Amino acid sequence: MSTAEPVNRWLQYLASERRYSAHTISGYRQDLFLLQNLYPDTPLNQLSNGQLRQAVARLHSEGHKPRSLARALAAWRGFYQWWAPQIGLAHNPATDIRAPKIPRSLPKALSVEQTQVLLDRPNLPAPHTPIECRDQAMFEVLYSAGLRLSELTSLDTHYVHTTQYTSGSWLQLADAEVVVTGKGGKTRHAPLGRQAIAALERWLALRADMLKPQTGLTPGDRAALFLGERGKRISGRVVQLQLNKLAQLAGLPVNVHPHSLRHSFASHLLQSAQDLRAVQELLGHANIATTQIYTRLDFQHLAKVYDQAHPRASRRHNNTSGTSAAEVTASAKKSTDPRST
């Protein structure tokens, strides 16, 4: 049985009905082709649970990372869940297969001070060109609303619904918010702060200068909130390059990725409000366990403040191991906190 056609139909279903990103669709396509290449003489509808387990083990032995294996399993499981009922398979052969555990590293967030230096630009001229005002608005929105990069680039100036194009995410400036369609096609409202609103107003006043009148622009390009130099919807790569460029000009000693501003948004809110559920909603996390990783980051910040401020906290002078109170306390918390297991 040829499986190219059902694979294409499933991926089209994910794109049109579930609104998965082009990046995810491309990854899932590679994962299914990878499975086919592992068993070139066995059609996908004849693969067993044992063969899929062997596929995971083989890929792991070849050096594939746990995160890549987890995504491959998600692709295989999702495909069979969709396809099995259509062809009469008794069960999903990818059920109950687990990828190697993914180590949960802490998000790379900026400090409040670093974020202020990046966005306030104290040592740089105020933005005035269309590109500078666009960049300032993008970065303010990323930090103000805690958006993913793909969510930022998908924003439209307002809601558009025509026979040719319908907005998935858009700006509601009068309501000081953006409406965002995130992972899994879930829609959420994310508020915007006054700095983001001011930056957006400056950019919108100049946006027409970058919206080229030439042919070749799609309805989606013309609706896009943020534009590239050619007048089309801006790409994630351009956002990343422009942000890193600004970070260097501002003198930050770290590379700054757009997702760093999302992490900073979550970390800074937790430091101030300590409301995990609210941060979960604002980030659009389906599972609160995903949001809980920021509590570890927040605790490290608190322990560092304690280490620096408490007169008897630092053990640098009487601890031959060089271990600080923050490290000792963080280690103790990890051993007693059920979230660390």
Task: Explain how this protein is built.
This protein has 341 residues and is mainly alpha-helical. The chain has three domains: 4-87, DNA polymerase, domain 1 (Orthogonal Bundle); 112-258, Intergrase catalytic core (hpI Integrase, Chain A, Orthogonal Bundle); 287-340, no CATH class. The protein has 14 helices and four strands. A four-stranded mixed β-sheet has the order 1-2-3-4. Helix 1 runs antiparallel to helix 2 (22-38), helix 2 packs across helix 4 and helix 13 packs antiparallel against helix 14. The longest helix has 22 residues, at 66-87. The protein is globular and about 65 Å long. The model is unreliable at 315-341 (pLDDT under 50).
Fill in the keyword field for this structure.
341 residues; mainly alpha; DNA polymerase, domain 1; hpI Integrase, Chain A; 3 domains; 4-stranded mixed β-sheet; 4 strands; 54% helix; DNA_brk_join_enz; Tyrosine recombinase XerC; cytoplasm; Integrase-like_cat_sf; tyrosine-based site-specific recombinase activity
Task: Characterize this entry briefly.
It is found in: Cytoplasm. The chain has 341 residues and is mainly alpha-helical.
How is the CATH topology of the largest domain named? hpI Integrase, Chain A
Q: How many beta-strand runs?
A: 4
Reported for the largest beta sheet, the result is: 4 strands, mixed
Put simply, the count of helices is 14
Domain module count: 3
* N-to-C series of helices and strands: HHHHHHHEEEEHHHHHHH
Q: From the helix content, strand content and strand pairing, which structural class follows?
A: mainly alpha
Distance between termini?
A: 44 Å
Mean pLDDT: 81
Report Rg.
24 Å
Low-pLDDT parts are 315-341
CATH architecture identity of the largest domain: Orthogonal Bundle
CATH top level assignment of the largest domain: Mainly Alpha
Helix content: 40-55%
CATH level 4 superfamily of the largest domain: Intergrase catalytic core
- Principal-axis shape: globular
| Beta-strand percentage range | under 5%
**Strand order of the biggest β-sheet:** 1-2-3-4
